[in-house]
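Deliverable D4.2, example record:
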Amino acid sequence: MKIFDTIAGMGHEQLVLCQDSASGYRGIIAIHSTTLGPALGGTRFWTYASDEDAIVDALRLARGMTYKNAVAGLNLGGGKSVIIGDNKTSDREMLFRAHGRFVESLGGRYITAEDVGTSTADMDFVHMETDYVSGLAGRSGDPSPVTAHGVFRAIQASAKEKWGSDDLAGKTVSLQGCGHVGYYLAKELHDAGAKLIVTDIDAERVKRVVTEFGARAVESDEIYTAEADIFAPCALGAVINDKTIPQLKVEIVSGAANNQLLEPRHGTALDKKGILYTPDYVANAGGVINVYSELAGWTSERAFRKADEIYDTVLRVFQIAKHDKVPTYEAADRLAEMRIKAVGSMVRTWPQWPNK
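Output generated by the structure prediction step:
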């Protein structure tokens, strides 16, 4: 792997490889862009097949955070870190304190938070060594309601684009995943008058949504063939692929799951089939908005108001897609790049020293 060629090709600013023998810590911090502000992105704790796989994952995720933060209209760049190892280990304090020390060494260029394989308790350990961490227990709280609200607004905007009205009363939504975000999304959809078809690998989660919101439950694979107006993936990624696309009987795909497209070409395939796709990182930006609210000291109400803006952002993505004649996933990237370029092109006022 030619590391410098790789990070240059992906547009990254910095890649930091870290190790601490005493704790057994092996970590990677990738900073993609700080044009809009400090790079924000969670810490993923995962067992990788190779060090190269871990580096590629960190780089890919960091770049994704740049685009997500830019589209969300936040003063944040994109970064990500990964810790290589078994995330089931109970010996965590020294591991995450070591991680915190390396985050601190970057002087605020990178701010971390929880991600796959990590928790708020782990972030408390990180916080023992640095203030450049978010997602702490007792701070911004559970991000699920804000994330779900953003997805709900994205669905409304998609309905507006597709049918000329954002009224969801009488519309049928097939919801894949009834976890924290899926549950709150189901509530908002139900309150808006939508009918729900749901599935989840956890039967208790399904039972709760069926009982509280009158949803109809189906088996996991049946969610793709369910006749509905909208498909809302809120569980695993890569669910839009060669196998599932021919099965879909919907007009809109808009959900909270990350990386819904197995490959970019599947976004093009949806477009050719006449299915309107809301790019996932635009729809689910409520999560990072909730994290930013902690950093900025916002109230919960302000975080929800910011998530409301996802409605207008989604409509802007659709506008770009139509104007440039590109699929919506490309239009979302273009919107992010426009904001990064605009902020990056602003004239600096001098002197900054010694007042920096």
